[in-house]
Amino acid sequence: MNFGLKKIDIYIIKKFLGTYFYSILLLAMIIIIFDISEKIDDFIDRKAPVSAIIFQYYLNFIPYFVNMFSALFTFIAVIYFTSRMAANTEIIAILSNGISFWRMLRPYLISALILTFLSFGLMNYIIPFTNRSLRSFEKLYIKNPFRVNDMNIHMQISPDTLIYVENYNNMVNIGYRFTMEAIGKDGMTMKMSADMIKWDSIKGRWKASNYCIRKIEEHKEILRRGKELDTTMSFKPADFITDIEDAKIMTYNQLNDYIKKEKLRGNTAVGKFDLERNKRIAFPFANLVMAFIGVALSSRKVRGGIGMHLGMGIAIAFTFILMQQVTSVFAVFGNLPPSIALWIPNMIFAIIAIFLLRAAPK
Questions:
Q1: Per DSSP, what are the bridge partners of residue 114?
Q2: What distance in Å separates the CA atoms of residue 221 and residue 210, rounded to the nearest whole number?
């Protein structure tokens, strides 16, 4: 079934997707070789098995790499094969046979949409699973454990319960100067304080040292003190650790749920997770934008040939990537919402694409 596609459509789609996958997999192999040379000492020192290096690390690295450079290689692929078509006067032959320039863009649109949906699926549902294997491998054989020693942690663990920890160390799962308050309709109903809380991983409970519990029931105050108390509380050690790397192992739905939960708890670092969520929507759209800029630039036959088109194309592509990084910084450290910041490069370059397409030879 060709779904109404003509031979010229299938020809361009094959050229587009073939050039894209060939170039990105070729570069992936080169990057893997350089990565092995950089990490070989870690692999040897920590005695990483060859099977784990190949199947757990590098096999799961490929989807991440493909998606990371997706927009750039979409652009390069279009520039490369369209420039060759222009140099061989194939585009002139297409247009002179009654096919309009806008009709010629249909296979480009189809190919770019395939890569856009592929990038969306990779970012939101496939890479989070492959990153779990990558992360466990890195913890064992490459990176040191993630350390947290935060000060003055305020957290809302439920709509009516607040906790405070002056200092928390995730390596030993100990918090110092702990306070928990429960708020009812008429004010505070319970307050618990302790000099130290420590997580008991065997029992799955917290142990409070030098604790004091104050309860207010029917306008009466009940006070209870002690040296040690084993208790179950509705938070765990992981709730004190905000690691942006966690976002990379969450699907889009899991990331949404996590952001809602952390906003309820008053986590100030949730903005980075919100940035990651919006990036997963805006980033795949870049494939469409870069594909149309590429075809608009390379469909004209110029004296410099493919080299001229590639030079112009790479300059525009890196300008686009630089703008993505700049707007991301504004979203994290400025007052610009991520939902706006991450779409600014796409919108600006979409306008450029429309202008270039209108100016392209018809």
A1: none
A2: 19
